[in-house]
């Protein structure tokens, strides 16, 4: 047994899987809300991609992943992660998850955009994420080696001699430090930086901020995925209308009843970035956009998609009879903390798994339902690596003289929504950098979220091409070869200052 626990920050699929797989090593699981709440994993309707069907293969799943990733995936990393599929699914089943099966007991595979096969496993239909997280959370609660610290925020990673020595946390207004030489970040996405997102609003990229402030390298920060079909309501976060609805044949129409994607390759099931741009283009010209499931699903809608049916009904829409109004919204971040396929970051003692990490699997555009898979595979991989190594010596932690201010993204949202959205251009990105830099450099509540938004703006400014989810209207073409960009926080700040100084445009955003 160790004396010094592994600290895991975050309780989505990646964090919970890592915690369970680390047993019997001691783990402290730190989570901002109650365990398994406020996590995008629990909201996943789509399910988990798994090339386990008779007509499917690892090679086919890899080919679809690389194709959706638009030439920007790291093929070796993608291959390796997808190879972990069978183990991850078995692990989930062993921890109580019951994937949907047909009357013969065979797994049922659904179809989603840009998959060439039906390969999406669901548990409890479109309530997959909730079912998976409920089962994992229950297993975690029953595992004696795991201590859960809920309602607790990790505010800084503590370093001694450039290695992880602890975590500075705040719980109920009380600051304390937790001694650990191994931290796994599993904090999820960045949707809280945007006004329109399908993620829990409190998730603005805390793990990326923790890693960046500790000196770890970030990668591919410009690649933010916008889901084409969030329900167009005033609710925030925006409820999702799963791609699986289009997978079952629902079509997209505008308020002139035109099926505007019909000439696009793949039509409604083209890669997500393509469909999101097509919808955004309609909305920019004043059209409204709808998902029409009346013919494809009709009265079967409520039994096939009970969660979505309830969401629609609470907005006064009956999908069997009415068009569903949709719009794109921030949904997933392909970029994040640079890691290898064991989840190791550039900082000794720091791992990152799940959405906050950039492994190279997703490239410029994540293939639908590859994220829950990656979360589970990488949670297992990080745990396996940690268990295979002797425990590092505990280092004395630095003395804490000040608690960083509680992070609040409110001042950042309008900047991200306006400048870091589906369509970008140089002047708009420079305006974002000018607006964000003072926030990022201040010692105030907006600083932590501003650092993440600034990193996205700087990476996006420096990528002078359009690829996957990153669309530059001033550089609409792809370059011949895609280069992965990596920067640490000091380089990001330095680059931002250079851009800001060389392009003195108005600071108001
Ligand atoms: C969806 O159900 O459309 C979302 C699935 C995903 O984001 O992977």
From TrEMBL:
- What task does this protein carry out? Catalyzes the oxidation of L-aspartate to iminoaspartate.
GO annotations of cellular component type: cytoplasm
Q: What is this protein called?
A: L-aspartate oxidase
Ranges for domain Fumarate reductase/succinate dehydrogenase flavoprotein-like C-terminal come to 452-478
Q: In which pathway does it act?
A: Cofactor biosynthesis; NAD(+) biosynthesis; iminoaspartate from L-aspartate (oxidase route): step 1/1
Q: Which residues form the FAD-dependent oxidoreductase 2 FAD-binding domain?
A: 6-372
Record localization: Cytoplasm
Q: Which UniProt keywords apply?
A: FAD, Flavoprotein, Oxidoreductase, Pyridine nucleotide biosynthesis
Tell me the InterPro entries matching this sequence: FAD-dep_OxRdtase_2_FAD-bd (IPR003953), FAD/NAD-bd_sf (IPR036188), Fum_R/Succ_DH_flav-like_C_sf (IPR037099), Fum_Rdtase/Succ_DH_flav-like_C (IPR015939), NadB (IPR005288), Succ_DH/fumarate_Rdtase_cat_sf (IPR027477)
User: Whose protein is this, by species?
Assistant: Martelella mediterranea
Instruction: Name the EC number(s).
Output: 1.4.3.16
Question: Quick one: a GO biological-process term for this protein?
Answer: 'de novo' NAD+ biosynthetic process from L-aspartate
Q: Name one Pfam family in it.
A: Succ_DH_flav_C
Named cofactor requirement(s): FAD
The entry assigns this protein to a family as follows: Belongs to the FAD-dependent oxidoreductase 2 family. NadB subfamily.
Q: Please give the superkingdom of this protein's source.
A: Bacteria
Under the heading SUPFAM superfamilies, the entry gives: FAD/NAD(P)-binding domain, Succinate dehydrogenase/fumarate reductase flavoprotein C-terminal domain, Succinate dehydrogenase/fumarate reductase flavoprotein, catalytic domain
Q: Which reaction does it catalyse?
A: L-aspartate + O2 = iminosuccinate + H2O2
GO terms for MF? L-aspartate oxidase activity
- Top-level class of the enzyme under EC nomenclature: oxidoreductase
């Amino acid at each position: 047994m160790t004396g010094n626990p592994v600290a895991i920050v975050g309780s989505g699929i990646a964090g919970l899987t890592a915690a369970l797989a680390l047993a019997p090593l001691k783990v402290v699981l730190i989570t901002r809300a109650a365990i398994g709440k406020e996590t995008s994993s629990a909201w996943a309707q789509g399910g988990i991609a798994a090339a386990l069907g008779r007509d499917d293969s690892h090679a086919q799943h890899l080919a679809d992943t690389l194709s959706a990733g638009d030439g920007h995936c790291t093929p070796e990393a993608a291959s390796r992660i997808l190879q972990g599929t069978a183990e991850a699914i078995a692990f989930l089943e062993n921890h109580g998850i019951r994937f949907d099966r047909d009357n013969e007991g065979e797994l049922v595979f659904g179809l989603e955009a840009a998959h060439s096969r039906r390969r999406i496993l669901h548990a409890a239909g479109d309530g997959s994420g909730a079912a998976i997280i409920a089962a994992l959370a229950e297993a975690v609660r029953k595992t004696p080696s795991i201590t859960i610290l809920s309602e607790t925020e990790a505010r800084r990673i503590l370093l001694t001699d450039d290695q992880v020595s602890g975590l500075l946390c705040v719980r109920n207004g009380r600051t304390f430090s937790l001694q650990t030489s191994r931290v796994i970040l599993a904090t999820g996405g960045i949707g809280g930086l945007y006004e329109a997102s399908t993620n829990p609003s409190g998730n603005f990229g805390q793990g990326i901020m923790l890693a960046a402030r500790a000196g770890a390298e970030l990668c591919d920060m410009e690649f933010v995925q916008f889901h084409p079909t969030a329900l167009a309501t005033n609710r925030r976060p925006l409820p999702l209308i799963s791609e699986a609805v289009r997978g079952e044949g629902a079509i997209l129409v505008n308020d002139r009843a035109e099926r505007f994607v019909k000439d696009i390759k793949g039509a409604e099931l083209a890669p997500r970035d393509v469909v999101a741009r097509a919808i955004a283009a309609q909305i920019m010209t004043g059209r409204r956009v709808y998902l029409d499931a009346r013919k494809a699903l009709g009265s079967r809608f409520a039994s096939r998609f009970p969660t979505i049916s309830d969401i629609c009904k609470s907005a006064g829409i009956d999908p069997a009879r009415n068009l569903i109004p949709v719009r794109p919204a921030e949904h997933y971040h392909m970029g994040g903390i640079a890691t290898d396929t064991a989840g190791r970051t550039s900082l000794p003692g720091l791992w990152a798994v799940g959405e906050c990490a950039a492994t190279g699997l997703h490239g410029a555009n994540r293939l639908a339902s590859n994220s829950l898979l990656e979360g589970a595979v990488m949670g297992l991989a990080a745990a396996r690596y940690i268990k295979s190594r002797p425990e590092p010596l505990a280092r004395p932690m630095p003395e804490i003289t000040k608690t960083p201010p509680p992070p609040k993204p409110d001042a950042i949202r309008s900047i991200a929504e306006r400048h870091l959205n589906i369509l970008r251009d140089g002047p708009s990105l420079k305006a974002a950098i000018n607006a964000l830099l003072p926030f990022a450099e201040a010692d105030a509540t907006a600083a932590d979220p501003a650092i993440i938004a600034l990193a996205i703006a700087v990476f996006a400014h420096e990528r002078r091409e359009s690829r996957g989810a990153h669309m530059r209207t001033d550089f609409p073409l792809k370059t011949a070869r895609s280069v992965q960009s990596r920067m640490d926080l000091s380089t990001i700040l330095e680059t931002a200052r250079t851009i800001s100084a060389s392009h003195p445009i108005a600071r108001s955003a």
